[in-house]
Amino acid sequence: MLLYLRLLSESFSFAINALRNNKLRTLLSLLGVTIGIFSIIAVLAAVDSMDKKIKADLSDMDMNTIYLMNRSFGSSDIPRWKRDQFPPVTYEEYEFIKKSVNGVDKATFNLFARSENIKYESKTVNSIRVKPATDELFDITPVKVESGRLFNAAESNSGTPVIVIGSEVASGLFEGSDPIGKKIRLYGQKFTVIGVLKKQGQGMFGDSSDVAVFFPVNFLRKLYGDNNKTLRPAILIKPEKGIDMDEFKAELSQKLRNYRGVKTGEIDNFFMNVLSGFTDFIDNIIGQMNMIGWIISAFSLLVGGFGIANIMFVSVKERTNLIGIQKALGAKNRFILFQFLFEAVILSLIGGIFGMFLVWIIAFGLSVALDFEFILSASNMLLGSGLAAVIGLISGIIPAITASKLDPVEAIRSGM
């Protein structure tokens, strides 16, 4: 054990000397390992951060929540031209589903609308996400209120012009003053602010409630009717807990088909997008991003491996005389082998540490600048260190074998 500790100590000294005596050559050779480890760990950290953020954003929602609409979240076997003919869901269908489908815990009708500008007196906040919906939306996608309240069922049904605003909307329009009871203008109409939401932070899909406003969907239906092409309706359905989802979806599909008059043998002219299926779709994308990152990074690691091998061949050449002396004094072949292997691994680890340090610096900077938490986990750092060690081991094996097989007499003579 002491022998290997001594080998490790000597190899570390040789590696540091290589860096000190041939700074430019060694740094250029280690650059490949640095870039390779940086690429892999940066991709893994970014993907892990995205995955954590997505799951955090969806954590308050039931994964069995169904988005019933005429569009699919993912790919579909139905031709595009046929999907474009599917009729949008309606408010009447929302009411029918609430009354007729068994196992519905909560259901809400909402409209996906384009971003709008909101005004209060002389102040304007641009590109705000508007979310017209029935009051049950807050039971399916919970939000936290900072001050005031959410609109209720009576206001929802009558389409009362009341509005709940996000924290950034409130700060942009009112600059610290109390927004409750104030009148703001949207769609050329006046809305009374009844609530302000707590700050949420940036969402993964740009859907943070901080830059959103919520108001009764019936207000917009009265204003524009139900045939406005710029508004895309959807019915969100939260099934009761413990329900058999296959049976629930089958009943929902059959009753909606009957309501729409879809004949036997014809395909559904609507999509039931289950939120769990959406997360599976996201997981698949994340897996593909990981794979692509590994493939791209592999080329940098290959170049880094060649760089380490180059350093080690030069090191063997420069220390041929020393190797001969060590052998003449009784050093075994494996002593010489392990000495150069340890040196290659240590050099590679130094390059890997630089790469991980760069990831940490960039992740810290982006977290501060973008208000988004980039995660550099301990498992990713261990993976980076392990990869660096493996690269050093593979790159150093041939130079180490070459050094261990040198004839001591010829090796000593070469240094004379």
Automatic annotation (TrEMBL):
PANTHER family: ABC TRANSPORTER PERMEASE YTRF, MEMBRANE COMPONENT OF TRANSPORTER-RELATED. It is a multi-pass membrane protein. Residues 26-254 form the MacB-like periplasmic core domain. The chain crosses the membrane at residues 27-47, 291-314, 335-362, 382-403. Coiled coil: none annotated. Pfam families: FtsX (PF02687), MacB_PCD (PF12704). This is ABC transporter permease. Signal peptide: none annotated. Belongs to the ABC-4 integral membrane protein family. Residues 294-408 form the ABC3 transporter permease C-terminal domain. It is found in: Cell membrane. Its main location: membrane. Keywords: Cell membrane, Membrane, Transmembrane, Transmembrane helix.
